[in-house]
Amino acid sequence: MCKVKLVIFDIGGTIIEDNGEVISSFTAALEGNGLLATQSELTELKGSSKRAVIKKFVERQWGQQDPENETRIDKAYQDFKMQLENNFSNGGVKPVHGAESTFNWLRAHDILFATTTGFYRTVTERILNTAGWQDIFAANICSDDVKMGRPAPFMIFRAMETAGIDDVRQVLNVGDTRLDLQAGNRAGVLGVVGVLTGIQKEDRLKQDSPSQLISSVADIPALIEQHYS
Question: Could you read off the pLDDT of 62-108 as tens digits, one per residue?
């Protein structure tokens, strides 16, 4: 009997190809607002709430107490959103190979599946609609649906609540970043699965003790049959 009742997927880099849309959007928005950040810093923050990333660099540059910070954060975040939506409007939504077949396999085995993401609602819906996935998930949870995004586990818990799953021991959390893995470990789910289709590779992901590392979400059916049945 399968132990898994719900598989929670990150979106960018996990079920949608990561072609640098987020990093390039951050770079343009930060530079346009006089904020300093390196590519390696932005890469390490993949999977975070996007507004939280902006906040981090604003506060680093001007201090946490500067009265102008909220205005700076709002301006840079709006610029980031405009850049990101333009990127995803220009052919930027490409499902990871095998994602569709994995969803079909999960459905055939009566396993629910959901998404969590550091994206905000508007761009999340645009991505899922473009991929033709607007109606297939038991839950789609964005970072702005919870008080704290990754590495806090709250998006996972919200996805479980929405999907009607009340036991973390029936949940797999799947993602391509260290923050995905950290959130899964903090949630205490049955399996914390890293995929190698994102910008962070094996040497980085191993630092956060995944239950398994797999090439892509195409390997999820075999993983469940081998380890969770």
Answer: 999 999 999 999 999 999 999 988 887 766 789 999 999 999 999 99
Q: What size, in residues, is the chain?
A: 229
Q: How far, CA to CA in Å, does 170 sit from each of 4, 5, 91, 95, 141?
A: 5, 5, 36, 26, 18
Domain range summary for the chain, segments of one domain joined by +: 6-18+94-227, 21-89
3-class DSSP state for residue 174?
Answer: strand
- pTM for the whole thing? 0.90
Residue 18 contacts residue 43 (beta carbons within 8 Å) = no
Considering the domain 6-18+94-227 in this protein, what is its CATH number? 3.40.50.1000
CB-neighbour burial class of residue 185 (10 A; exposed 0-12, middle 13-18, buried 19+)? middle
